Amino acid sequence: MSMTHIGAASKDIDVPVVCVTGGKGGTGKSTVAVNLAAYFAREGLKVLIVDCDVSAPNVAILMNTTLSEKREVTSFLPSFDEKACVRCGKCVSVCRAHAILQVGDKPPIFFASLCKSCEICKVVCPAGAIKEERKVVGWTYTGSAYGVDIVSGELKEGEPNSAVVVKATKDRAYEVLKDGNYDVMIVDTAPGTHCDVIRSIWGSDVAIAVTEPTPFGMHDLGLILELTRMLGVKTKVVINRSDILENGGAKVREICEKYDSEVIAEIPLDREILYSYVKGYPAVLRNVDTPGVRALVRLGETVRGLLNL
Ligand code: SF4
Ligand code: SF4
Questions:
Q1: Which residue ranges make up each domain of the chain?
Q2: How much is the average pLDDT of 73-86?
Q3: Ligand 1 pocket residue status of 125, Cβ below 6 Å
Q4: Which pLDDT value is given to residue 4?
Q5: What's the pLDDT tens digit per position in 161-215?
Q6: Residue 116 Cβ < 6 Å to ligand 1
């Protein structure tokens, strides 16, 4: 297994990483991630699941547990010294977030809620009039349930800089991995193809793209497969609610072929999976034998094979 890089920092570990992602929300991405984690734990593997969907973290909810060891995530916040400022306007012109405004030769006005913490204003200021302060942008947590360890991130409401929290979440996961003798790490990403998702997928050995056979789902599947191809991450596809559209599977396969991917599981609509979702108890741990639960177990076996676990 190749060495894996986590977050933006080049920190190397030798634990296989699988990320569970999807072009759009509501496809059952987190349900798949949680069931994979529970399946691996059931098979005696030491598993860490990392919730990088920091705007709407739900792994702990799906595992019916409360997280603890809350840690603040902070980021740079400029503080302007009016007395030192020479009114040159350089900070205004470099701020791509439009968080700084200057009217005439007045000192700059700063809109903290728009600031992306890039620090460029501080770098260009010729008068040393911009100092560093820190603001809380989110939190990370740890916990465990059903034999699975959990690291989760949470973005503070109203904060625009979710990528900082995703990075902090992956850094914390790395810390936990370093101390823990783990067999595998599962990363649950946000839906979409934006910066947070790229950061979450980065460094994975295998990506699982969860989709549903609807026109919207298939359109977004193409986007996520395009993204993972650009990132060079081998990607397999899971069709959730596979029976909601006739011939939907065939169309998903056509898209997969275009991106040199393949469908590795089709999970039909299943009341038992829905019941498990509501109860916060992974379906693969329940003693039920239904098409949907069988498909989840087979998916676990397949991914185990892909990762040589
Ligand atoms: S840190 Fe970046 S985003 Fe924030 S005010 Fe400065 S230049 Fe703008
Ligand atoms: S770059 Fe510095 S000196 Fe220039 S306007 Fe901004 S704060 Fe003032």
A1: 4-72+137-306, 82-128
A2: 96
A3: no
A4: 43
A5: 888 999 999 999 999 998 889 999 999 999 888 888 898 999 899 999 999 888 8
A6: yes
CATH, range 82-128? 3.30.70.20
- Ligand 1 pocket, residue 115 CB under 6 Å: yes
**Residue 284: predicted pLDDT:** 95
pLDDT at 12: 64
Sheet holding 17-21, edge to edge: 68-80, 130-145, 148-155, 47-51, 184-188, 17-21, 206-211, 234-240, 262-267
Proximal ligand: closest to the CA of 75: 1
Domain 4-72+137-306 falls in which CATH fold?
Rossmann fold (3.40.50)
Both tokens assigned to 75: 């980021």
In single-letter form, the type of residue at position 164 comes to V
Whether residue 2 is predicted with pLDDT greater than 80 in this model: the reply is no
Ligand 2 centre and the CA of 133: distance in Å?
Answer: 16
Q: From the CA of 132, how far away is ligand 2's center (Å)?
A: 14
Buried b / exposed e along 54-76 (16+ C-beta atoms within 10 A): bbebbbbebbebebeeeeebebb
